[in-house]
Amino acid sequence: MLAKVGRKLGISLVGEEISQREILAILFPVIIDQFFLISFNFINTAMISSSGSAAISAVNMVGSINIFLVQIFVAIGLGGTVLISRAYGRGDTQGLGALSASVIHGTLFIGTILMLLFLIIHPVVLNLLFGKADALVMSHAKGYFVGILLSYPAHAVIEGINGSLRGLGFTRNSLKNSLFMNSVYLVSNLVFVLIFDLGIIGLIVSLLISRFLGVIFASYSMYQHRQNFRLRKKDLTQLDFPTISFILRTSLPFAAESLFFNGGKIIMQMMIVSFGTAHIAANAIAGSWIQLSEIIPSALATSLVPIVGQSVGRRNLNDVRSLTKSFIRLGIVAIIAVDILLLPLFPWAMKLFNPEPEMIPIIFKIYMVAFVMHGVAWCYSFVLPSALRAVGDGKFTTTVSLFSMWIFRIGAGYLIGVYLGYGLLGIFVVMTIEWGIRGAIFYRRFLSNKWMKNLD
Predict the structure, then answer these.
(1) Are 267 and 410 in contact (CB under 8 A)?
(2) Residue 242: CB partners within 8 Å, gap ≥ 6?
(3) Rounded to two decimals, what is the model's pTM?
């Protein structure tokens, strides 16, 4: 029945050289991974809401900076996924050990540098970005930022290992790594935030415990697949600087696009801070609720990278085209279906988050804007560029993201939200319109076949 409906919608999860079983083996673990990742973020926001709007605001402010920084070593893991999947697709297995070890070394190096740098400059960064925030919010934010920074080396290694595992299609193992880490984080939050009522300190302790236990668990996962990667002890103990440098250069477009995108989000956060603590908290709550419907399409975007990468390695462009289109259509169906299911649950969510009463109508309007634009634009803006990056067109996606973010989202967001006084809702409307603009450009690029020049 589902297969028949899928065919009517133009969705076919099977290629000429990759079976449906292989695709689902990659996809399902990533969906579950995304479910727990976003669900735990949802629960995390709900838990800290018991500590008041100042705590929610601090976590949200630092969270925007954290996403900006974490995406740097996440991008290295993603770049490693592309390189490993291509090597595997063309049958070059001898160099996989050195390649995967260099991915891990690269993420660890970047994660450690970021930790040391921002431990020194974090007060300046927070005051520069969010100096208009209340004193209590800023105090919470500084402590929370230090705790997050201390977790970066361990988090970076986990991303490097997961990126390597996904490159060979071992998404089930990367799922287990994420499940273990997030389960430890959730249980620790229950203990330290809800039972012991430690607030921000409880979040920090939970984060550090989950990350350092997670790196041990992930390392064991990599050890289990050492034969598949041709991984030798010397690959891990000796630094291969040329390979690390190559991986970092390859990952640059992924990192640059994430930096441009999340840097723009930080500037939007700066605009929202000027509206007051209640609006900062409302933005955090709305974002946590809206992300629930993005679980499946986010998983599709992540899964598309190794699938397209392996197809490129085999030089099978028919699979690249057909599977990319199918993933976009499946993402649209999924995001609309989940939005419909979430709509009647909105009142329950507001009781869980307990925002300021005057903020509830604004949060609902934001959700309705997302409800409409999710189906229209989200998958073209976020799923499609994964395929373009996997075929080596990362420079184009980065350039488009740079201009669309800073001209439309930031420029128009300030004009509508701040200058014309439409506030948080106005900023969010502009943001969703920018989804559509970026998605239309990516779709035109994909249809033009200009991305094929990267395969020569």
Answers:
(1) yes
(2) none
(3) 0.74
